[in-house]
Amino acid sequence: QVQLVESGGGLVQPGGSLRLSCAASGGTFSNYYMGWFRQAPGKDREFVAAIRWSGGLTYIADSVKGRFTISRDNAKNTVYLQMNSLKPEDTAVYYCGAALIRAGSPITQGRAYDYWGQGTQVTVSS
User: pLDDT at position 55, please?
Assistant: First the structure.
């Protein structure tokens, strides 16, 4: 049974940084993309970043490019989202997802993902 567990959320002031972690277990993830999405109150779930577990190819949403980076630690089966220069509009619940690599699968869309974590709250406020 695949499990994804996010951690690292919290309250941070504008301009601050947080690092989110997503610990993956119960499967072999070399054939997966791991992604981060976020959902603010009253808004749709939004793609943030994704990384191909094997090879490390990354995709970053334009809204966070230059501020957020995604990485993974193969030994720990963990994916990270480093968030710098945080803004109030980054406030959301952040979700980690795992998507099996399929030809033509849109990894920037939630429907491509097979598994989700429970989410972690990030609040950016002074």
Answer: 85
